[in-house]
Specification:
Length: 209
Amino acid sequence: MRKSRTETAETRKRIVATASRVFLTKGLAATGIADIMVAAGLTQGGFYRHFGSKEQLVAEANGAAFGQLMEMFESAVAGKAPREALDTIVSLYLHQLQGKDPAHLCPLANLGSELRHSDEQVKATTVDGYERLVRLVAQQTQQLGIPGHADVANAIVSTLVGAVMLSRLAPDRGAEETILLNAQNVVRVLLQCSPQANVPTRKRRSSQA
């Protein structure tokens, strides 16, 4: 019996979600199509009914990972003042490896060294994810009145991604924490480029009234 379009779509969604989790935890090169299909509870032969290549799956899996990451950040900062929201984003990103949910791992930090060897569709998805993160941070730096807020946002995201990548190479938990703490301090220095960044939101609004 042929599967309905709804069933086919659900199966494809299941494969993408599984691939996202497995790629982020085991890496791209170490994960084959068979590994993904087994983890999804499906036969390897069914893969090519949904995807033309492993690269296509990697691109869609990364897109899904960025989507979940952004949803998590947006939910976490909802209703918070810009400085508090930015502190939340920084803390959550830097400590993503300490969480138990692989759904909130970032492809940039966890697959970065492998993604540079990927094809154009994977790179395009990765760049799009990076730009989404930068825009999220830029929303906060702009509201803080930081000059060159977009450039500062780029610098912050680059710092966070690099720190998490390096922390994965740390020989022990102490070295890992040092790397992450240093990154958090660098972000604080970047935010000090504007006096307005250190003025409470309520006071700044009152002075502008």
